[in-house]
Design goal:
14 strands; six-stranded antiparallel β-sheet; four-stranded antiparallel β-sheet; 42% strand; alpha+beta; single chain; Immunoglobulin-like
Length: 187
């Protein structure tokens, strides 16, 4: 095979493999804990007076669909018994001071791994930073001061399906399987 023919074959294989990768552009709120530098991430971890807290963004959506309402999951890992949480005291606040509450509340005891899905009737729009005021945490009868997290809308790309990796795996694994079978059979 000539060098140009080999180059054409390689180009054909590369173009087929590159089109076998399905990607989606999406937007999602990024969360940054207090004193954190940078843009934040899809989730933030922090510790509040003996309780490990993970706040996860749940408002991921394809970029073409626009910006959905803000939603988060808050997961707690208390170090001891006696902690409680009122999701109704969590507030979303924009730069102008307008606020949205997560909904009805009431204190609920926290066990290890307790989680709460909170949604708001507002969206974290691109270029419009907002804050999530995480209030409603208490230890016994003592209320713990709220913690403010920074929010901003970010973009990303997800690889929904990597068809080319599957194809490459089959191309490489089948010959290796045959070779290993031949070696194991005493050939």
């Amino acid at each position: 095979m000539t060098r140009s023919r080999a180059a054409q074959s390689l180009l054909l294989v590369a173009s087929v493999l590159s089109t076998a990768c399905a990607t989606t552009r999406y937007t999602q709120s990024r969360i940054a804990p207090p004193q954190a530098k940078g843009r934040g991430a899809e989730a933030a971890r922090l510790e509040i007076e003996g309780v490990k807290v993970r706040v996860e963004s749940l408002d991921r959506a394809p970029r073409e669909q626009g910006t959905p309402s803000f939603a988060v999951r808050v997961v707690f890992e208390p170090e001891a018994l006696g902690y409680s949480f009122d999701p109704g005291q969590v507030v979303l606040r924009d730069a102008g001071g307008r606020t949205w509450h997560a909904g009805a509340g009431g204190y609920q005891p926290l066990g290890s791994g307790a989680s709460f899905d909170l949604s708001f009737d507002a969206a974290v729009a691109p270029g419009k930073p907002m804050e999530l005021v995480l209030g409603g945490l208490a230890c016994g009868t003592k209320r713990i001061e709220p913690v403010t997290l920074r929010l901003a809308r970010g973009e990303g790309r997800s690889y929904d399906r990597l068809y080319w990796l599957e194809a490459l795996g089959k191309v490489l694994l089948v010959p290796l399987g045959i070779l290993s079978y031949g070696v194991g059979a005493g050939m």
